[in-house]
Amino acid sequence: MELRLYGAIIKRRLWLIVSLLVILALSYALWPPRSLTAYTAQMRFVVGIRPEPGAGDYYTYDRYYTWLTAEYLVDDLAEVVKSQAFAQDVAQRSGLAVAAGAIQGATSAGKLHRILSVSITWGNAQEMERIAQAVTAALVEGGQLYFAQLGTERAAVALIDPPAIGAVGPSLRQRLDLPLRLLLALAAGVALAFLLDYLDDTIRHRADLETLGLPILAEIPSQRGWLARLWRRRSLP
Fold first, then answer.
1. How many helices (H) does the chain have, and how many strands (E)?
2. CA atoms of 71 and 156, how far apart (whole Å)
3. Are 204 and 11 in contact (CB under 8 A)?
4. Where is average pLDDT lowest: 119-133, 145-159, 162-176?
């Protein structure tokens, strides 16, 4: 019974719910939210260790420890790329008037064996290209500074995949913006419909009279729709 009553309330105030949805859809169409275009650059480097010259006739494990050291070095270098000092170096090499913190927040690094992957997300394609070139120069040309801090001076970095710059598609938040707004408008419309019905003191059901303590002598059922009107006309003499 309560579900039927709730349905009647929503049906009676359906115009209000639909009006809120239409207003929201029109406002979204006339003043759509500004979508910010972002660009990303992906590049990969290989990190190696120059083998020490042989000093005697002995077995060197076929450079096993050299490769193993390079893998450990990539782990440390991935953290160096995300540091404030590396971001400041990139900002100086790029020649752009951008804060090092912005570059640091836009840079991420990954690693796989001896391969270092660097990803940068930026809002300007031209600036992105200069920042990507600065990252490459900082690792390939100026990497010895960071390698010295990591305890080795025989490491070398080579670029194997040059920066590939591409536009980033809309984020999940941007794709769900309109559905979430419509859902909120629907919830607000339903809540407002129940609020108006609560404040409305019109007598519509026998339950309203019973609540007031008034006696009910008779009840005339409502006949709505063309089918009910047709049946009533056929019933008349």
1. 11, 4
2. 12
3. no
4. 145-159
- Rounded distance between C-alpha atoms, residue 229 and residue 236, angstroms: 11
Distance (Å, rounded) from C-alpha 57 to C-alpha 116? 34
- CA neighbours within 13 Å on the CB side: how many for 194? 8
pLDDT at 236: 47
CA 147 to chain centre: 36
What's the rounded mean pLDDT across residues 83-92? 88
- Residue 115 φ/ψ, nearest 5 degrees: -105, 125
pLDDT at 135 over 50: yes
- How much is the pTM? 0.58
181 Cβ contact partners less than 8 Å away, ≥ 6 residues apart: 24, 28
Q: Which two tokens stand for residue 189?
A: 């419309």
Residues of the chain with CATH 3.30.70.1130: 38-52+60-169
CA atoms of 93 and 87, how far apart (whole Å):
10
Residue whose C-alpha is closest to residue 121's, from 88, 154, 163: 163
DSSP letter for 24, please. H
Indicate the CATH number for domain 38-52+60-169. Answer: 3.30.70.1130
Q: What percent of the chain has pLDDT over 70?
A: 70
Could you give the CA distance from residue 207 to residue 43 in angstroms, rounded to a whole number? 73
